[in-house]
Design goal:
Length: 292
């Protein structure tokens, strides 16, 4: 495996952080829009109205999803680490039993209680009665890992899909007129006219002029939303690759149940261990990236 094929960069992480902060800033910013409308009305203009868009409701949830994403990824890494260790111990013990017997030893003649996995206090279905049952238990554990990865993938996919809607909601609101009788100033220009309604954002403006700052703010957020689509897509590709590798481990374990002799089982386990190690390496890479 070449992790560089799925590499996530520091620059991409910064985009993820900024997008998360943007989600948190949306509601305070949009709460100030009726304030500037009312200020225009008091100045003698016809009151403008901007309908609330339901897509804004999910912004809070998505902010929370992204803030908690590292913690959920760490949980998946710990799960992966434990299951890969189970697989490695099982493989080592199979090799040791082979050294004490023979590569041609029939699986059915090997006492499954020689494997430490047989003494596990927890079973996904039922206690084992033979070596194929032990292998099936390993597969079930990786099923659980795959389900956890699927949930991470689902979260990223939802946030990615909703980012497109947020872009249109944001730009439409910022370009909305501040009164019914004039096309200008726009909402974003009026928001920047007073410190109390100015959106909190993390860029250094080139000028103190309210209209210029409003333009720079809108352009920067629009660029962030476009870049975030690329970053979340990359995260989705990463998690899809991780999901398929985990699925491959499961399928290989299920096939290994049919091994008739120790030599055949050892050969299968060598390949399965490689896949398990790749899964752990990928989830560790994602967790480290999120932890930076």
């Amino acid at each position: 495996m070449n992790i560089l094929d799925y590499e996530l960069t520091v620059a991409q992480r910064l985009v993820l952080d900024r997008y998360t902060r943007f989600l948190g800033s949306l509601h305070p910013t949009f709460r100030n829009i009726p304030v500037v409308f009312e200020q225009r009305r008091k100045s003698g203009h016809q009151l403008a109205v901007l309908a609330w868009d339901s897509r804004l409701e999910n912004a809070r949830f998505n902010e929370q999803y992204l803030q908690g994403f590292w913690g959920r990824t760490e949980d998946v890494r710990l799960l992966s680490s434990g299951y890969v260790e189970d697989l490695q111990v099982f493989t080592h013990e199979a090799l040791e039993i082979t050294r004490q017997t023979s590569r041609n030893e029939p699986i059915g003649l090997v006492d499954f209680r020689l494997f430490s996995l047989s003494r596990s206090p927890i079973w996904h279905l039922f206690p084992p009665k033979n070596i194929p049952d032990l292998i099936h238990e390993l597969a079930l554990r990786f099923y659980g890992l795959r389900a956890a990865i699927r949930q991470l993938k689902h979260t990223v996919g939802e946030v990615y899909d909703e980012s497109f809607g947020l872009k249109s909601v944001f730009l439409r609101a910022m370009d909305h007129r501040c009164c019914q009788c004039h096309t200008t100033p726009t909402v974003v220009q009026e928001l920047f006219r007073q410190p109390v309604t100015t959106p909190v954002w993390d860029i250094e403006y080139s000028n103190s002029n309210a209209s210029l700052r409003a333009s720079e703010y809108k352009a920067d957020v629009a660029a962030l939303l476009s870049t975030f689509s690329s970053v979340s897509s990359r995260m989705g590709v990463f998690l899809e690759g991780l999901y398929h590798r985990t699925d491959g481990v499961i399928n290989e374990l299920l096939r290994a149940k049919s091994a008739s002799r120790l030599g055949e089982l050892n050969f299968n386990l060598a390949s399965i261990n490689e896949g398990g190690t790749e899964c752990l390496a990928m989830i560790s890479e994602l967790e480290i990236w999120l932890r930076k």
